[in-house]
Amino acid sequence: MTDGPSEDIEALIDLMARLPGLGPRSARRAVLHLIQKRGKLMLPLAQAMQAVGSTARECLNCGNIGTSDICGICDNPKRASGQICVVEDVADLWAMERANVFSGRYHVLGGTLSALDAIGPEDLRIPKLLDRVITEEITEVILALSATIDGQTTAHYIADQLPGVSVTSLAQGVPVGGELDYLDDGTITAALKARRSL
Amino acid sequence: MRRQVISRIGLRHFRSHRKVDLEFDGRPMAIFGPNGAGKTNLIEAISLLSPGRGLRRATSDDFVRRPEALGWKITASLGSGHDIETWAEPGAGRQVRIDGKAQPQVALGRIVRLLWLVPTMDRLWIEGADGRRRFLDRAALSLDPGHAEAVLSYDRAMRERNRLLKDMVRDSHWYTALEMQMAASGHLITEGRRAAISALMSAQAVASDVFPASRLSLSHAEGDLPDGEDALRTALADGRARDLAAGRTLIGPHRCDLEAVWEAKDMAARDCSTGEQKALLISLILANVRALGEGSPRILLLDEVAAHLDAGRRAALYDEIRALGVQAFMTGTGPELFDDLGASGQFLEVTDENGESVVRYAD
């Protein structure tokens, strides 16, 4: 046997290496760093993980991840603006929140419709969305879904079931700060179709 | 002006070729050598400079040289200054880099326009409609690179719909969502195919006597294909019950067929003799090249084309290729098949040495 890290430390490295963005090498480096900063970093991290591990859950209303049954956004009366933004997963919701421009509520689907992958409306919290549109007196549903076939199928599917409510989708086109020269033809076509007068 | 050609190609561990680097000056390229030496593999590598699975419709794993199984790579430089790399790691899908940047395969269609004729297409007019649809779609793609995206989108949405039909799902909203996308991309496909047919027809108006003109039309398996996006969407929605019973989608551009009639004889292509069918096919490919006009490189790959033509037709084919200024790569078993090219062609000899293809310039 070689004199590497002890069994416990190996086990920790193995766990760390399963995190997205980390491999065996970077996991080893991270664990070594944690051990060296045991008091300042490792123990607080362990406590934080313990705390979040026992309280983290999906919001029963929108599917956001928080530490209570109803997330802070759904719980905040100021966000009852009549607008609901539909996203594929929690990472998309957090991205929208980072931009700090949307004052309504969200609905996380947890994926997109795909008959080939056997993902149907029941798997996606779509019935819950349709409920919420009525109970929360929603006037506009904003679809922020991927511009893929599955994303667009999901968007059409939802729009088709919401007559009487304004259904919009995010614009597609030139990114802010982007140069036309670097865009693919599909993006340029979409941008030209969605042009507006100044 | 720089010539619109492929000026250099490199193959690494691709089928029978271990390491090959070739330079081209744009002259018609005659590739000869015994059966199984690796001639077709060479032009198959060139065919991968366009989107899709190449002229044999193979998968990425088929391209791997055995026994090393290291993955494969093709590099090419175009006269226009673009550099293309396409490769696959073992067990992984094909990747494309253009000028050092990762790009989707469809991006290749915008910088190279490639057409080919292979021996399996000799039966094009008598076998199933899917071969003719592919032939027509390839012509449409050569004229409008966006055609590939429409075909991919339509195919994906249709497979989703067929899955619902097979699983007897009855959620009408789901069907509506998929049919909207099928109608949008299906309409683009039909437009692209019609444009290709009219471009081919007008480009062959100047066809020589050796390569006959044909009358082309688009037909549909069940009655007429609904015209326009809205009509297609309505027809798909109306056809759900019937499609459910069949377990698949019965109308749409995927049920279309390309009909060809030998103009001078007023005879359907499938009723023509084998030699006539071949002449008709070559005539259409040449019309397609003509319709492309100049701009980005126009490449024509002709696998074993010389063998099926008599000396007169061969000479006429080489004349056409020279007149069109298209960069042609042709394979054949012996150099004598290309005698009529003379100094206007470049010659490559491919031989097999201990299970490895060896390529030599033979001018």
Largest sheet of chain B: 6 strands, antiparallel
Uncertain segments of chain A are none
CATH architecture of the largest domain in chain B: 3-Layer(aba) Sandwich
> What share of the residues of chain A does DSSP label as strand, in percent?
5-15%
What's the number of structural domains of chain A? 2
Number of strands of chain A: 6
What does the overall shape of chain A look like? Answer: globular
- CATH class of the largest domain in chain A equals Alpha Beta
β content of chain B, as a range?
15-25%
The CATH topology of the largest domain in chain A comes to: Dna Topoisomerase Vi A Subunit, Chain: A, domain 2
**Regions of chain B with pLDDT < 50 over 5+ consecutive residues?**
none
Supply the number of helical segments of chain B: 8
**Average pLDDT, all residues of chain A:** 92
Q: N-to-C terminal Cα separation of chain A, in Å? A: 73 Å
Overall radius of gyration of chain A: 22 Å
Task: Quickly count the helices of chain A.
Answer: 8
What is the typical, i.e. mean, pLDDT of chain B? 91
Tell me what the structure shows.
The complex is a heterodimer of chains A (198) and B (363). Helix content of chain A is 43%, strand content 11%. Chain A has helices spanning 7-16, 24-36, 38-55, 72-75, 90-99, 126-135, 149-160, 185-193, and strands spanning 57-58, 65-66, 83-87, 105-108, 140-144, 166-169. In chain A, helix 1 crosses helix 2 (24-36). The longest helix of chain A is centred in the first third of the chain and has 18 residues, at 38-55. Chain B is built from 8 helices and 15 strands.
Give a concise summary.
The complex is a heterodimer of chains A (198) and B (363). By secondary structure, chain A is an alpha/beta fold.
Tag the structure with descriptive keywords:
heterodimer; A: 198 residues; alpha/beta; Helicase, Ruva Protein, domain 3; Dna Topoisomerase Vi A Subunit, Chain: A, domain 2; four-stranded parallel beta sheet; two-stranded antiparallel ribbon; 8 helices; globular; B: 363 residues; Rossmann fold; Glutathione S-transferase Yfyf (Class Pi), Chain A, domain 2
